[in-house]
Backbone:
């Protein structure tokens, strides 16, 4: 299947059922790792809103708190060097287990910035869940605890990820042709 967004064509890359199955597996791992404990799932807006909604419903027997922040760092199809401010970190995370939920880790610059910022608030632990990871673009070596899919270094849209604001609602993940 193909979609056209503005000037670009995308082809289906990861299907809805595959994503669902993988998130169930990640949810089970998170449930095991944090069994009976309190965990703040911290979604990074906008891209994580779909994975967040699906993943949090795959987590069981954990005392879940849900919260969202925003960092803007990307426009068009190439990663920008500059990461801006973290906005909306209102809930106290001191002494708490935090699970950052992202749509994608590409160069890792945004996540690195976020990790540094969160650590100044002295959380008990910080873990990372990301639907997608581009290992060939990654420039850091902090661990990614829960990775949905490792993908090649090509631009993708759908399932929360946008191309200039469009395509987030697509139920599958599409890759630039
Ligand atoms: P970073 O390079 O800092 O790891 O990624 C920053 C942000 O760029 C991600 O949170 C995501 O919003 C965006 N991004 C990176 N790769 C892609 C991609 O292939 N498709 C889309 N739609 N966004 C991406
Ligand atoms: Mg993101
Ligand atoms: Mg984007």
Residues:
């Amino acid at each position: 299947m193909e979609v056209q967004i503005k000037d670009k064509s995308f082809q289906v890359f990861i299907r809805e059922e595959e994503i669902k199955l993988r998130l169930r597996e990640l949810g089970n791992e998170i449930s095991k790792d944090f069994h009976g404990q309190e965990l703040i799932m911290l979604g990074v807006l906008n891209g994580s809103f779909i994975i967040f909604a699906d993943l949090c419903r795959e987590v069981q027997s954990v005392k879940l708190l849900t919260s969202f922040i925003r960092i803007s760092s990307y426009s068009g199809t190439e990663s920008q060097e500059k990461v801006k401010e973290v906005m909306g970190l209102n809930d106290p995370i001191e002494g708490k287990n935090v699970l950052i939920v992202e749509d994608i880790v590409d160069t890792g610059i945004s996540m690195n910035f976020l990790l540094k910022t969160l650590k100044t608030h002295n959380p008990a632990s910080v873990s990372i869940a990301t639907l997608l990871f581009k290992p060939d673009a990654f420039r850091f070596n902090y661990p990614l605890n829960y990775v949905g899919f490792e993908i090649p270094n090509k631009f993708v849209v759908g399932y929360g990820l946008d191309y200039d604001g469009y395509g987030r609602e697509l139920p599958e993940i599409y890759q630039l042709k």
In short: The chain has one domain: 12-72+84-176. The mean pLDDT is 94. The two ends are 11 Å apart (CA to CA).
